[in-house]
Amino acid sequence: MFTGIIREIGVLRGLSPSGDVLRLAIAAPGTAAAVSVGDSVAVDGICLTVTAKRPGVFSVEAAAETRRLTTLGLWRAGRRLHLEPALRAGDGLDGHYVQGHIDGTGKVTAVRQARGGGRLVTVTLPGSLAANLTPKGSVAVDGVSLTVDEGPFLDRFTINLIPHTMAVTNLGTLAVGASVNLEMDVLVKAARGAGRPAYDRTGAAQVPAPITSNACARWASAPRGGRIAHDHRARPESRKRPRRSGHRHHRLRTGSAQARRDHRRGR
User: Fold this and answer.
1) 177, 72, 164: which is closest to 122 by C-alpha?
2) Which stretches of the chain drop beneath a pLDDT of 70?
3) CB-based contact 105:92 (threshold 8 Å)
4) Nearest CA among 224, 70, 35 for reference residue 140
5) Element (H or E) spanning 16, and its range?
6) What is the pTM of this model?
7) How far is it, in rounded angstroms, from Cα 12 to Cα 215?
Protein backbone atom coordinates (compact mmCIF):
# COMPACT_ATOMS: atom_id res chain seq x y z
CA MET A 1 0.00 0.00 0.00
CA PHE A 2 1.22 3.49 -0.89
CA THR A 3 0.02 7.07 -0.58
CA GLY A 4 0.95 8.68 -3.89
CA ILE A 5 3.50 10.99 -2.25
CA ILE A 6 6.79 10.70 -4.15
CA ARG A 7 9.81 10.27 -1.87
CA GLU A 8 12.59 10.27 -4.45
CA ILE A 9 13.21 10.49 -8.19
CA GLY A 10 15.46 7.71 -9.40
CA VAL A 11 17.22 7.11 -12.70
CA LEU A 12 16.78 3.93 -14.71
CA ARG A 13 20.27 2.55 -15.25
CA GLY A 14 19.49 -0.55 -17.26
CA LEU A 15 16.94 -3.12 -18.42
CA SER A 16 17.72 -6.79 -18.92
CA PRO A 17 15.05 -9.26 -20.14
CA SER A 18 15.06 -12.84 -18.90
CA GLY A 19 12.25 -14.85 -20.46
CA ASP A 20 8.96 -13.18 -19.56
CA VAL A 21 10.58 -11.15 -16.79
CA LEU A 22 12.22 -7.77 -17.24
CA ARG A 23 14.85 -6.74 -14.68
CA LEU A 24 15.38 -3.05 -14.01
CA ALA A 25 18.29 -1.43 -12.17
CA ILE A 26 17.40 1.93 -10.63
CA ALA A 27 19.86 4.42 -9.15
CA ALA A 28 18.30 6.05 -6.07
CA PRO A 29 20.53 6.47 -3.00
CA GLY A 30 17.74 7.26 -0.54
CA THR A 31 15.40 4.47 -1.60
CA ALA A 32 18.20 1.91 -1.94
CA ALA A 33 19.28 2.60 1.63
CA ALA A 34 15.73 2.37 3.00
CA VAL A 35 14.53 -0.86 1.37
CA SER A 36 15.49 -4.50 1.72
CA VAL A 37 15.26 -7.39 -0.69
CA GLY A 38 11.62 -8.49 -0.81
CA ASP A 39 10.20 -5.02 -0.06
CA SER A 40 7.69 -3.33 -2.34
CA VAL A 41 8.43 -0.06 -4.10
CA ALA A 42 6.11 1.96 -6.33
CA VAL A 43 8.01 2.85 -9.52
CA ASP A 44 6.05 5.40 -11.56
CA GLY A 45 3.04 4.03 -9.72
CA ILE A 46 3.78 0.33 -10.40
CA CYS A 47 4.18 -1.86 -7.34
CA LEU A 48 7.38 -3.88 -7.87
CA THR A 49 9.44 -6.11 -5.59
CA VAL A 50 13.07 -5.39 -4.74
CA THR A 51 15.12 -8.38 -5.86
CA ALA A 52 18.64 -7.08 -5.29
CA LYS A 53 20.44 -4.01 -3.99
CA ARG A 54 23.88 -2.50 -3.73
CA PRO A 55 25.00 0.92 -2.51
CA GLY A 56 22.92 3.54 -4.29
CA VAL A 57 21.15 1.09 -6.61
CA PHE A 58 18.33 -1.43 -6.29
CA SER A 59 16.80 -3.86 -8.77
CA VAL A 60 13.19 -4.87 -9.42
CA GLU A 61 11.49 -7.28 -11.82
CA ALA A 62 8.35 -6.86 -13.92
CA ALA A 63 6.23 -9.61 -15.46
CA ALA A 64 4.72 -9.56 -18.94
CA GLU A 65 1.26 -8.60 -17.65
CA THR A 66 2.74 -5.59 -15.86
CA ARG A 67 4.36 -4.41 -19.07
CA ARG A 68 1.10 -4.89 -20.97
CA LEU A 69 -0.97 -2.71 -18.65
CA THR A 70 1.57 0.05 -18.00
CA THR A 71 3.95 2.39 -19.79
CA LEU A 72 6.90 0.20 -18.80
CA GLY A 73 7.39 -1.00 -22.38
CA LEU A 74 8.30 2.58 -23.33
CA TRP A 75 11.01 2.99 -20.71
CA ARG A 76 14.62 3.41 -21.71
CA ALA A 77 17.86 3.80 -19.77
CA GLY A 78 18.19 7.30 -18.34
CA ARG A 79 14.48 7.74 -17.65
CA ARG A 80 13.64 9.53 -14.41
CA LEU A 81 11.22 7.56 -12.26
CA HIS A 82 8.92 8.40 -9.34
CA LEU A 83 9.76 6.25 -6.31
CA GLU A 84 7.78 5.58 -3.14
CA PRO A 85 8.55 2.83 -0.62
CA ALA A 86 5.57 0.96 0.82
CA LEU A 87 3.52 2.58 3.59
CA ARG A 88 4.41 1.39 7.09
CA ALA A 89 2.34 1.40 10.26
CA GLY A 90 2.53 4.85 11.81
CA ASP A 91 3.38 6.66 8.57
CA GLY A 92 1.28 9.66 7.62
CA LEU A 93 -1.38 9.17 4.95
CA ASP A 94 -0.79 12.42 3.10
CA GLY A 95 -2.22 11.46 -0.29
CA HIS A 96 -4.78 8.68 -0.73
CA TYR A 97 -4.80 4.88 -0.69
CA VAL A 98 -2.74 3.69 -3.66
CA GLN A 99 -2.22 -0.01 -4.32
CA GLY A 100 0.36 0.22 -7.06
CA HIS A 101 -1.88 -1.90 -9.30
CA ILE A 102 -2.13 0.09 -12.51
CA ASP A 103 -5.58 0.01 -14.12
CA GLY A 104 -4.38 1.19 -17.52
CA THR A 105 -2.72 4.06 -19.31
CA GLY A 106 -3.86 7.46 -20.46
CA LYS A 107 -2.54 9.98 -22.96
CA VAL A 108 -1.95 13.68 -22.44
CA THR A 109 -4.02 15.65 -24.96
CA ALA A 110 -3.72 19.21 -23.65
CA VAL A 111 -1.45 21.28 -21.42
CA ARG A 112 -2.47 24.78 -20.30
CA GLN A 113 -1.04 27.33 -17.94
CA ALA A 114 -3.01 27.96 -14.77
CA ARG A 115 -3.09 30.95 -12.47
CA GLY A 116 -0.36 31.07 -9.85
CA GLY A 117 2.22 29.28 -11.93
CA GLY A 118 0.40 25.96 -12.08
CA ARG A 119 -0.42 23.84 -15.09
CA LEU A 120 -3.64 22.17 -16.25
CA VAL A 121 -3.08 18.78 -17.87
CA THR A 122 -5.87 16.93 -19.66
CA VAL A 123 -5.61 13.15 -19.94
CA THR A 124 -7.75 10.92 -22.14
CA LEU A 125 -8.50 7.37 -21.03
CA PRO A 126 -10.82 4.45 -21.82
CA GLY A 127 -14.42 4.86 -20.68
CA SER A 128 -14.12 1.80 -18.44
CA LEU A 129 -11.50 3.65 -16.40
CA ALA A 130 -13.27 7.01 -16.48
CA ALA A 131 -16.29 5.31 -14.89
CA ASN A 132 -14.26 4.97 -11.68
CA LEU A 133 -13.47 8.67 -11.38
CA THR A 134 -15.51 11.12 -9.31
CA PRO A 135 -15.62 14.94 -9.35
CA LYS A 136 -12.85 16.25 -7.07
CA GLY A 137 -11.90 12.65 -6.40
CA SER A 138 -8.43 11.13 -6.28
CA VAL A 139 -6.43 9.54 -9.09
CA ALA A 140 -2.81 8.39 -9.22
CA VAL A 141 -0.94 9.57 -12.33
CA ASP A 142 2.48 7.91 -12.68
CA GLY A 143 2.17 7.17 -8.97
CA VAL A 144 1.43 10.76 -7.91
CA SER A 145 -1.71 11.36 -5.84
CA LEU A 146 -3.73 14.07 -7.59
CA THR A 147 -7.25 15.52 -7.56
CA VAL A 148 -9.59 15.60 -10.53
CA ASP A 149 -9.87 19.33 -11.26
CA GLU A 150 -12.16 19.27 -14.31
CA GLY A 151 -14.53 16.42 -15.10
CA PRO A 152 -14.47 13.55 -15.13
CA PHE A 153 -15.99 13.26 -18.58
CA LEU A 154 -16.71 10.10 -20.54
CA ASP A 155 -13.18 9.85 -21.88
CA ARG A 156 -11.00 12.45 -20.16
CA PHE A 157 -10.23 14.41 -17.01
CA THR A 158 -8.01 17.36 -16.09
CA ILE A 159 -5.58 17.72 -13.21
CA ASN A 160 -4.13 20.94 -11.82
CA LEU A 161 -0.40 20.73 -11.09
CA ILE A 162 0.70 23.26 -8.50
CA PRO A 163 4.30 24.56 -8.67
CA HIS A 164 5.38 22.35 -5.74
CA THR A 165 4.15 19.19 -7.46
CA MET A 166 6.00 20.12 -10.63
CA ALA A 167 9.16 20.79 -8.63
CA VAL A 168 9.25 17.43 -6.79
CA THR A 169 7.93 15.16 -9.58
CA ASN A 170 8.37 14.67 -13.32
CA LEU A 171 4.84 15.78 -14.14
CA GLY A 172 5.98 19.30 -14.99
CA THR A 173 7.65 17.89 -18.11
CA LEU A 174 4.48 16.24 -19.46
CA ALA A 175 3.73 17.21 -23.04
CA VAL A 176 0.92 16.44 -25.47
CA GLY A 177 1.20 12.82 -26.59
CA ALA A 178 2.88 11.53 -23.43
CA SER A 179 1.57 8.27 -21.95
CA VAL A 180 0.98 7.98 -18.20
CA ASN A 181 0.12 5.18 -15.77
CA LEU A 182 -3.31 5.52 -14.17
CA GLU A 183 -4.72 3.98 -11.01
CA MET A 184 -8.27 4.82 -10.02
CA ASP A 185 -9.20 5.30 -6.36
CA VAL A 186 -9.55 1.84 -4.81
CA LEU A 187 -12.45 3.01 -2.61
CA VAL A 188 -14.44 4.15 -5.64
CA LYS A 189 -13.69 0.89 -7.46
CA ALA A 190 -14.89 -1.13 -4.50
CA ALA A 191 -18.08 0.92 -4.15
CA ARG A 192 -18.89 0.52 -7.83
CA GLY A 193 -18.25 -3.19 -7.98
CA ALA A 194 -15.06 -3.03 -10.03
CA GLY A 195 -13.72 -6.06 -8.17
CA ARG A 196 -16.22 -8.51 -9.67
CA PRO A 197 -14.90 -11.05 -12.24
CA ALA A 198 -14.30 -9.43 -15.60
CA TYR A 199 -15.41 -12.52 -17.55
CA ASP A 200 -17.92 -15.30 -17.02
CA ARG A 201 -17.32 -19.00 -17.62
CA THR A 202 -17.92 -18.64 -21.35
CA GLY A 203 -15.31 -15.91 -21.67
CA ALA A 204 -17.87 -13.19 -22.32
CA ALA A 205 -17.18 -9.84 -20.69
CA GLN A 206 -19.44 -8.94 -17.79
CA VAL A 207 -20.76 -5.39 -17.72
CA PRO A 208 -21.33 -4.07 -14.16
CA ALA A 209 -24.87 -3.02 -13.42
CA PRO A 210 -25.34 0.74 -12.89
CA ILE A 211 -25.11 1.86 -9.30
CA THR A 212 -28.01 3.85 -7.85
CA SER A 213 -27.91 5.81 -4.64
CA ASN A 214 -31.69 5.77 -4.20
CA ALA A 215 -31.78 3.45 -1.21
CA CYS A 216 -35.40 4.36 -0.46
CA ALA A 217 -36.54 3.05 -3.82
CA ARG A 218 -34.70 -0.21 -3.27
CA TRP A 219 -36.30 -0.58 0.18
CA ALA A 220 -39.78 0.17 -1.14
CA SER A 221 -39.48 -2.43 -3.90
CA ALA A 222 -38.28 -5.17 -1.54
CA PRO A 223 -40.73 -7.81 -0.25
CA ARG A 224 -42.31 -6.76 3.03
CA GLY A 225 -40.73 -9.62 4.93
CA GLY A 226 -37.28 -8.65 3.67
CA ARG A 227 -37.35 -5.05 4.84
CA ILE A 228 -35.02 -4.11 7.62
CA ALA A 229 -36.41 -0.65 8.28
CA HIS A 230 -38.14 0.05 11.58
CA ASP A 231 -41.66 -0.31 10.30
CA HIS A 232 -44.39 -1.81 12.48
CA ARG A 233 -46.07 -3.15 9.36
CA ALA A 234 -43.05 -5.35 8.67
CA ARG A 235 -43.01 -6.83 12.20
CA PRO A 236 -43.64 -10.59 12.14
CA GLU A 237 -46.89 -11.72 13.72
CA SER A 238 -44.98 -13.59 16.44
CA ARG A 239 -43.33 -10.35 17.58
CA LYS A 240 -46.50 -8.26 17.82
CA ARG A 241 -47.44 -7.42 21.39
CA PRO A 242 -50.70 -9.20 22.29
CA ARG A 243 -53.65 -7.09 23.30
CA ARG A 244 -54.24 -7.04 27.06
CA SER A 245 -57.55 -8.46 28.15
CA GLY A 246 -59.31 -9.56 31.29
CA HIS A 247 -61.24 -8.00 34.14
CA ARG A 248 -58.20 -6.35 35.77
CA HIS A 249 -57.17 -4.57 32.58
CA HIS A 250 -60.78 -3.47 32.04
CA ARG A 251 -60.90 -1.95 35.50
CA LEU A 252 -57.62 -0.12 34.93
CA ARG A 253 -58.85 1.37 31.72
CA THR A 254 -62.22 2.26 33.27
CA GLY A 255 -60.57 3.85 36.29
CA SER A 256 -58.29 5.92 34.11
CA ALA A 257 -61.20 7.17 32.03
CA GLN A 258 -63.22 7.99 35.18
CA ALA A 259 -60.28 9.94 36.60
CA ARG A 260 -60.07 11.99 33.43
CA ARG A 261 -63.81 12.76 33.54
CA ASP A 262 -63.57 13.79 37.19
CA HIS A 263 -60.67 16.07 36.38
CA ARG A 264 -62.64 17.80 33.62
CA ARG A 265 -65.59 18.32 36.00
CA GLY A 266 -63.34 19.91 38.59
CA ARG A 267 -63.74 17.17 41.22
Assistant:
1) 177
2) 194-260, 262-267
3) no
4) 70
5) strand 8-18
6) 0.72
7) 50
Cα(219)–Cα(65) distance, rounded to whole angstroms?
Answer: 42
Measured between alpha carbons, how far is 191 from 226 in angstroms, rounded to an integer?
23
Q: What is the largest CA-CA distance in the chain?
A: 104
In contact, 70 and 82? CB cutoff 8 Å: no
Residue 151 Rama label (left phi>0; alpha psi -120 to 50; beta): left
Q: Are 87 and 1 in contact (CB under 8 A)?
A: yes
Q: What is the pLDDT of residues 190-230, one digit of tens each?
A: 888 765 655 556 656 555 554 444 444 443 444 444 443 44
pLDDT score for 233: 45
Distances 233 to 218, 239, 242, 244 between C-alpha atoms, Å: 17, 11, 15, 20
The C-alpha angle with vertex 19 and arms to 13 and 24, in degrees rounded to 5, equals 15
1 neighbors 98 (Cβ within 8 angstroms): yes
Given a contact cutoff of 8 angstroms between Cβ atoms, the answer to whether 69 and 104 are in contact is yes
Instruction: Map 66-125 to HEC letters.
Output: HHHHCCHHHCCCCCEEEEEECCCCCCCCCCCCECCCCCEEEEEEEEEECHHHCEEEEEEC
